From TrEMBL:
UniProt cross-references to InterPro entries, sorted A to Z: CDP-OH_P_trans, CDP-OH_PTrfase_TM_dom, CDP_ALCOHOL_P_TRANSF_CS
GO biological process: phospholipid biosynthetic process
Keywords: Membrane, Transferase, Transmembrane, Transmembrane helix
Gene3D superfamilies: 1.20.120.1760
A GO molecular-function descriptor: phosphotransferase activity, for other substituted phosphate groups
Residues that span the membrane, as ranges: 61-79, 149-172, 193-215, 221-243
Name the UniProt record assigns to this protein: CDP-alcohol phosphatidyltransferase
Length: 251
């Protein structure tokens, strides 16, 4: 009888080693990216990516976990009366979902399993949450009569500005790729740290933490309105810049 050689046992890589490898494999951060996304969320995503890698999760599965956390928080905004505990829970779910949104790409780069389908899925989840979060917030504020009706315009403006900004960023990046042009934010420029700080009010991660104020609706809606105003102004300024940049491609 022929002896069967025992199959080699796969040893699990230590968590710290995985985190270190992720740091080495991580793509270069956009130097003008908002500070929270650049310095906080990417690091949180790295820790979660190491956890996911150790358990054999695929990038798409991590994206699914991100969607689960994010849309659970969004649903609570529409279904539950605003309170301090709700604000804390929603903030935690949104922050977790955002960190997992960073983790899926890091797992893909670490394992070499990135794909156009994975990128498509990631962007579809992002586009959906950007549109549904302010709409769910508006529904919740209206259902429970938490603020004056005039304030409900703010979530509507946010839904428009956020969707336009996201679409503009994705479209501009695709047109850059088609022209073989590297992103200006990656190549750098003057005062990249200043750009990161100035862009903080437009950062989705900062918006997640704003929901901690949900127990005081009047305070929350004022801070939220400032974030939305900054996002709207940034969207207009970015659109003008992107149009000028794309116009030069034809020349």
């Amino acid at each position: 009888m022929t002896e069967v050689e025992p199959r080699p046992v796969r040893t699990r890589e230590p968590y710290r080693d995985t985190v270190r490898r992720l740091a080495d494999a991580q793509k270069q951060a956009a130097r003008g990216a908002p500070a929270y996304s650049r310095f906080v969320n990417r690091r949180l995503g790295r820790l979660l990516a190491a956890w996911a890698y150790g358990r054999g999760l695929t990038p798409n599965q991590v994206t699914g976990l991100s969607a689960l956390a994010t849309f659970a928080g969004i649903a609570l905004l529409a279904l539950v009366e605003p309170s301090w505990w709700l604000g804390a829970l929603v903030a935690a779910l949104l922050v977790l979902g955002y960190a997992l949104d960073s983790a899926d790409g890091q797992v893909a780069r670490l394992t070499g399993t990135g794909s156009p389908a994975g990128e498509w899925l990631d962007h579809m989840v992002d586009a959906t949450k950007i549109a549904t979060l302010p709409l769910a917030l508006g529904v919740g504020l209206y259902r429970f009569d938490a603020v004056d009706l005039g304030w409900l315009v703010v979530p509507l403006v946010h839904a428009v500005a956020g969707s336009v900004l996201f679409f503009g960023m994705i479209l501009t990046e695709q047109l850059r790729r088609a022209q073989g042009v590297q992103s200006v934010a990656v190549t750098g420029g003057r005062a990249p740290w200043l750009r990161s700080v100035l862009a903080v009010p437009t950062d989705y991660g900062v918006l997640c933490w704003v929901f901690l104020l949900l127990g005081a609706p009047d305070v929350f809606v004022l801070v939220y309105a400032l974030v939305v105003a900054a996002t709207a102004v940034f969207t207009v300024a970015a659109a003008v810049k992107w149009y000028r940049e794309i116009s030069r491609f034809a020349r």
